[in-house]
Design goal:
The complex is a heterodimer of chains A (563) and B (687). Chain A has 563 residues and is of the alpha+beta class. Chain A is 31% helix and 23% strand. Chain A has a seven-stranded antiparallel β-sheet. Chain A has a five-stranded antiparallel β-sheet with strand order 14-15-20-17-18, with helices on one face. A four-stranded mixed β-sheet of chain A has the order 8-9-10-11. Chain A starts with 5 loop residues before the first helix and ends in a 9-residue tail after the last helix. Chain B has 687 residues and is of the alpha+beta class. Among the domains of chain B are: 121 residues; 118 residues, Dna Ligase, domain 1, CATH 3.30.1490. In chain B, 30% of the residues lie in helices and 28% in strands. Chain B is built from 16 helices and 37 strands. Chain B has a six-stranded mixed β-sheet, sandwiched between helices. In chain B, strands 13, 14, 15, 20 and 23 form a five-stranded mixed β-sheet that branches. The chains are: A alpha+beta (563), B alpha+beta (687). At the A-B interface, α1, α6, α7, α10 and β14 of A face α3, α7 and α12 of B. Chain B: GO terms for molecular function: 5-oxoprolinase (ATP-hydrolyzing) activity.
Chain lengths: 563, 687
């Protein structure tokens, strides 16, 4: 193996990150589908030729993809080894979440990059498609008990052989989506991104030589490992446990525990999820690759300077029992994976906060609240307003939590009320911060939100896939818990709550009736007694908390503050 | 005779003045320190250096950072918002974004606190129908309450006011009746465009800036008039066009990127004139490297920008991409042994180690100093007497050389190599995001430090040539003199393309045209021509990202002729095809917004008047030779005084060209040619 000098290493680190960024930019620019083009629900990177490990990943993609893509590549490596058919110019495509992680909406393309007849590395692209079939448009079916009730399941198959597009594969995919044009647009965008990646890698290897670039990849993996070990070493040795609960699995209203024990020994960190609930009937199961990728997301939120490189994980041991909520196997449904990984992040934060609260933030709101309202236009055409809603972030040693943020696994922005009102027959009666929803503390949690929506059509139906209705997002280091998720819908006889906490399917609404979603805030940081009275007085004057609640949490000293 | 015009760019450190005598074609530049807190001192001082009688000035054009600074430093006025019941938190909730992807830390404090955001009963629906008429008594009470609490300005933003201004206009009239100043901003006047957060933020930031910017511009104008100035006073907007000072006082939010925009306008004009219609500009300052792309002589415009987290301004503006790699960016080695540049910066104060003002961590400028590329005895800017090479070497040794096992020179080269690689990356990414191949562009560095890095940009990006303007340090001031007058208008249409009311579309264009032309006429400025540019923001139904569709319009005696549905459809197909290379078969086209730009083309001055007039030989400008480390070795490098090099001179690298505001490095494999305008064009030597 060639030695690499530190200058070349620093330059190559930037160049390879740039290749992944340029692949991101290529897809964002050419995708048809706003989930990719606007919300950037996609990712690209370079992966190890043998293990599939992440070598470099673009900076603009969604956080959860950092880490999960390695599993998609490994799945293809295994498949190619089994079939013994890998040739230059081959590209695989699949969406099978049980081997590739996340959910079936995420279409993955994986292409080996060859140099001098050998696989140098893999290039991969993942993007969230608009629709891949199944009973619910957009593939979010809260009552699914098997993947077959979610979407088309595509195992790794060759999309291109020797550079030639396999039209029969494309035909199968297109026949299984409600949005053919969008799917075709995303597919070509992803292929364009891989093509660009190949061209850029060719140029890089021509300039620096394959041996040097390979040496840089090895060195970058080692560096990532060193960085992670250095961060872990600064944590005290010990073992800390945390538990939290999912409200239910969407089928029966029984709470499901998620437990973690975080153990630090020197420069080694273990996350042990023993004690977590077994697999469930509904779609909040997640596949093992998703769970492992999620640990990576939590770790990177705690240590943001760690790179997107698998070397980070060499010092981290993740233990997940078989047949548990976090290791569900085919064909259990996984469509609601977002809710479960958010809870995993919460318990990891809660455990880590016991070891070193200054590095951690209080729990964020912990649910994406996928709320759809659907009906039929006068001409019979179906409309579906489908969106995720925001909530509060946790307080930290630096500051109060952010009011109304996006979920830790995402960076997607929320559509404006005016866009939604212009596209669907609804009126937003309220779109506001939710008073009193942040956890108390030296630095309080951010506020969640209230969205009250009135139906203007003669009739419509509402669907909700949420969480945190029974168990509040937690504060850390003495900070208070946030408010729980609350959902109400109006019927002729008044307001109701869903029978199953935070989840419901097809509740009929009449013209003028409303639904009201109140999302959780974030957990607080530090003892409330340490919050300066002037800040409490300001919170009260701004309506972030009411006077009585402030008295109870902070005492009455704030009443003496002159405004 | 009012024959002169002056462009004045007030930056953080210097105020630059560019004076053009339109009668003689003579141009002069001046650079004076910026005065604080009142910038008018430096402003008048700078003009005074080149113009003894302000009565000679026909036009003064100002690129200002007053608005930008007030936003960044949160020094705007105490203001209130009056809005629709249920929506007072729009400004604070943003679009649910966060500061950084990773870390989840930090909160957000909007410019208007929650207790100064008041709701009133009223509601308009998305189709423009009024569900609840506005309660005028409640509006008056809200306005009075804001006044009682000491608000100096007020923003009024009603939901769906883009679709029907009726309720909002009634409320605005009622507030203006009782408000003691002009400082009432209405969302339907400032941005009648769908998306309530962007409209609220833009309107609120306008109100926030109004008292400050109007006061500043008023003081400047008074000082000019008192000095005998009898011409027109114009302000550069973020879109690169100028507007009358009165308009700027009403729409200060449009000055958010005034200074940098003028620089890009000048860059585009200089490069086009010199035969390079496609350029990428790179402005290297103390903390950042700003990249802009100009294709076919036209800078690309962005629909909006975020001045700081959550402070969104939606108004067309010159698109400038910034990365944290400036001269003051700090080089450091991380725990994993990797050399990094920035994002931390020593800025200009304390500045690089070599400045001797207290910073001890090495910067990009320190690397240039140690390698002899910057003359330690003649630092640019004129603030310091000399630079401390030894201190810079020591810092590089300690923070980069030792951790990486490199000697001082290799460490300094490493710093530049990594910084160059990041700058080159920014150029490539900007090109790809706009759908261009950077190899088809020339590179134009401006700002103090950019011209030291030219060679690296050529080799790393694969660009064929670079063009360094004659006065790279005063490009923004020159841009003020060059910029056209431009008024932008927007109106959300929100209709399917095949059923849109084309008569209504023609009416909107006509209204924009009449308002825009009136603003041009009222400014009292000479124009060579006037253009109306109309674009539709369009997409296929189901898509939320739009493409800009240029629409050709016909103006007759009765005003604008309505476009047909077919014309709109064909224009969309052409624009979509150009952007994405294919159309969506059977896709339904939708029009979201209509945008009109009314442009008054101002006479351009002949850039060759800037060219050196002396004959003679290059040797006459040879000042000295110095050892410069480049390409891994020390070279005895000739140092030329740039401004006296005659037209047509060819200088082979290695060479350094010096001038008061910048240093140009021509690397050994490159040559520099002084073109007929006095620009230096850098290319590879013929093999």
């Amino acid at each position: 193996m060639a030695e690499i000098d530190p200058i070349t290493l620093a330059v190559l680190a930037g160049r390879m990150e740039q290749i992944a960024d340029e692949m991101d930019a290529t897809l964002f620019r050419s995708a048809f589908n706003p989930i990719i083009a606007e919300a950037h629900d996609a990712s690209h990177g370079l992966y190890d030729a043998v293990s599939g490990d992440t070598l470099v990943q673009g900076k603009s993609g969604l956080p959860i993809f950092v880490g999960v893509m390695a599993f998609a590549v490994k799945a293809v490596i295994d498949k190619a080894a089994q079939d013994k058919t890998l040739a230059p110019g081959d590209t695989w495509i699949f969406n099978d979440a049980h081997i590739g992680g996340t959910h079936l909406s995420d279409m993955r393309l994986v292409r080996p990059y060859l140099r001098d007849g050998e696989i140098f590395c893999y290039l991969a692209s993942v993007g969230h498609w608009h629709d891949v079939g199944g009973p619910v448009p957009g593939n979010y079916n809260p009552s699914a008990t098997e993947v077959f009730q979610e979407a088309l399941v595509l195992p790794p198959v060759k999309l291109q052989r020797g550079g030639e597009l396999q039209q029969d594969v494309v035909d199968i995919i297109l026949r299984n989506t409600r949005m053919q044009q969008s799917a075709m647009g995303d597919l070509s965008g992803q292929m364009n991104a891989l093509d660009l990646g190949v061209r850029r890698m060719d140029a890089l290897l021509d300039e620096y030589g394959a041996e040097t670039v390979k040496a840089a990849l090895v060195a970058l993996g080692d560096r990532a490992e060193t960085l992670a070990r250095s961060e872990i070493s600064e944590m005290p040795d010990g073992r800390w446990e945390a538990e939290d609960f999912m409200d239910n699995d969407g089928i029966t209203d029984e709470a499901l525990p998620v437990r973690v024990a975080l153990e630090v020994q020197g420069d080694k960190l273990t996350l042990d999820f023993t004690g977590t609930a077994p697999t469930c009937a509904g779609p909040i199961n997640i596949a093992r690759p998703t769970a492992i990728a999620c640990c990576y997301v939590a770790i990177k939120h705690i240590f943001p300077s760690l790179p997107a490189n698998a070397g980070v994980m060499r010092s981290i041991d993740i233990k997940i029992p078989d047949n548990c909520l976090l290791s569900a196997e085919y064909p259990l449904p996984t469509g609601g994976y977002t809710e479960t990984i958010l809870r995993m992040i919460d318990v990891i934060f809660s455990a880590a906060a016991q070891a070193m609260p200054e590095k951690v933030v209080g729990n964020a709101y912990g649910t994406i609240n996928a709320l759809s309202i659907a009906g039929r236009r006068p001409d019979g055409k179906r409309w579906v307003m489908f969106s995720f809603y925001g909530g509060g972030h946790g307080g930290s040693i630096e500051s109060d939590g952010l009011n109304h943020g996006s979920a830790p696994i995402s960076t997607a922005t929320i559509p404006p009320a005016e866009i939604l009102e212009s596209a669907y027959p609804v009126i937003f009666r309220q779109w506001a911060l939710r008073d009193g929803s942040g956890g108390t503390g030296m630095h309080r949690g951010g506020l969640g939100a209230v969205y009250e929506i009135e139906v203007m059509d003669e009739s419509a139906e509402a669907f909700l896939f949420g969480e945190r209705g029974r168990f509040a997002p937690k504060g850390i280091a003495g900070g208070g818990d946030a408010a729980k998720n609350v959902f109400h819908y109006e019927q002729d006889d008044g307001w109701h709550e869903p029978a199953l906490t935070s989840k419901m399917v097809g509740i009929p609404l009449k013209k003028g009736q409303r639904v009201r979603l109140e999302t959780p805030g974030g957990g607080g940081y530090g003892q409330p007694s340490e919050r300066p009275a002037a800040q409490v007085a300001r919170d009260v004057s701004l309506g972030y908390i009411d006077a009585a609640a402030a008295d109870e949490a902070y005492g009455t000293a704030w009443r003496e503050v002159e405004q | 005779m009012k024959t002169k015009m002056a462009g004045v760019d007030v930056g953080g450190t210097f105020t630059d003045v560019f004076v053009l005598d339109e009668a003689t074609g003579e141009a002069r530049v001046a650079k004076v320190p910026t005065t604080r807190p009142d910038q008018s001192g430096g402003f008048l001082d700078g003009i005074g250096r080149e113009v003894t009688d302000l009565g000679e000035l026909g036009t003064v054009v100002h690129g200002t950072t007053a608005g930008t600074n007030a936003l960044l430093e949160r020094k705007g006025a105490k203001i209130g918002i009056i809005t629709t019941e249920g929506f007072r938190d729009t400004l604070e909730m943003r679009r649910r974004d966060r500061r950084q992807t990773w870390g989840l830390r930090g909160d957000y404090d909007p410019v208007v606190p929650r207790n100064l955001r008041l709701e009133v009963p009223e509601r308009t629906l998305a189709d423009g129908s009024v569900l609840t008429p506005v309660d005028i008594d409640a509006v008056k009470a809200a306005a009075q309450s804001l006044l009682d609490q000491g608000c100096a300005a007020c923003a009024i933003v009603f939901v769906n006011a883009y679709a029907n201004r009726e309720n909002e206009a009634a409320a605005v009239a009622a507030v203006r009746d009782i408000w003691p100043s002009e400082h009432v901003s209405a969302s339907h006047e400032i941005l009648p465009e769908i998306r309530e957060f962007e409209r609220t933020s833009t309107t609120a930031l306008n109100a926030y800036l109004q008292p400050e910017v109007a006061g500043y511009l008023g003081r400047l104008e008074t000082a000019l008039r008192d000095g005998g100035f009898g011409g027109e006073f114009l302000i550069v907007q973020s879109n690169g066009g100028v507007m009358a000072v009165d308009t700027a006082c009403q729409l200060p939010v449009r000055t958010a990127l005034s200074g940098p925009a003028a620089g890009v306008i000048a860059a585009g004009y200089i490069a086009s004139t010199a035969g390079f219609p496609n350029i990428i500009t790179g402005d290297m300052g103390g903390t950042s490297f700003d990249v802009s792309l100009i294709a076919d002589g036209e800078p690309s415009l962005a629909p909006q920008t975020s001045i700081d987290f959550g402070m969104v301004v939606r108004t067309p503006m010159i698109e400038i991409t910034t990365i944290g790699a400036g001269g003051g960016s700090i080089a450091w080695v991380d725990k994993g042994g990797l050399l990094n540049i920035g994002p931390e910066s020593a800025g200009s104060n304390p500045g690089p180690v070599a400045y001797g003002q207290g910073n001890t961590r090495p910067t990009v400028t320190d690397a240039n100093v140690v390698l002899g590329r910057i003359d330690p005895d003649r630092p640019i800017g004129g603030k310091l007497d000399r630079l401390d090479v030894e201190a810079a070497s020591k810092a590089i040794d300690e923070h980069v050389g030792q951790p990486l096992g490199l000697d001082t020179l290799s460490a300094a080269e490493a710093i530049l190599k990594v910084a160059n690689s990041r700058m080159a990356g920014a150029i490539r990414l900007v090109s790809i995001e706009r759908g261009h191949n950077p190899r088809h562009f020339a590179f134009m560095p401006f700002g103090g430090g950019g011209a030291l890095h030219t060679g690296a940009m050529l080799s790393e990006v694969g660009i064929a040539s670079a063009i360094i303007p004659r006065y790279p340090g005063v490009t923004s001031a020159m841009g003020c003199v060059i910029a056209d007058m431009r008024q932008d208008f927007v109106q959300t249409v929100n209709a399917l393309a095949h059923e849109a009311d084309t008569t209504r579309i023609a009416e909107i264009i006509e209204e924009h045209r009449v308002r825009g032309l009136k603003l041009l006429d009222d400014a009292g400025v000479t124009f060579e021509g006037r253009d109306i540019v109309v674009e539709l923001d369009m997409a296929y139904v189901g898509q939320t990202h739009t493409v800009s569709v240029p629409l050709t319009i016909n103006v007759g005696e009765d005003g604008v002729t309505a476009p047909t549905h077919d014309e709109i459809g064909e224009a969309f197909d052409a624009a979509y095809m150009a952007s994405f290379g294919r159309l969506l078969e059977g896709g339904v086209r939708r029009i979201l917004n209509l945008r009109t730009a009314v442009i008054g083309r101002r006479p351009k001055f002949d850039l060759s008047t800037l060219a050196p007039t002396n004959d003679g030989k290059a040797e006459d400008s040879l000042r000295t030779t110095r050892k410069v480390h480049v390409g891994g070795d020390w070279h005895d490098t000739p140092i030329y005084t740039r401004l006296t090099l005659p037209v047509g001179t060819v200088i082979d690298g290695p060479a350094i060209l010096e001038q008061p505001d910048t240093t140009i490095l021509i690397e050994p494999d490159l040559k520099g040619t002084v073109d007929q305008f006095g620009n230096v064009v850098i290319e590879r030597k013929e093999a």
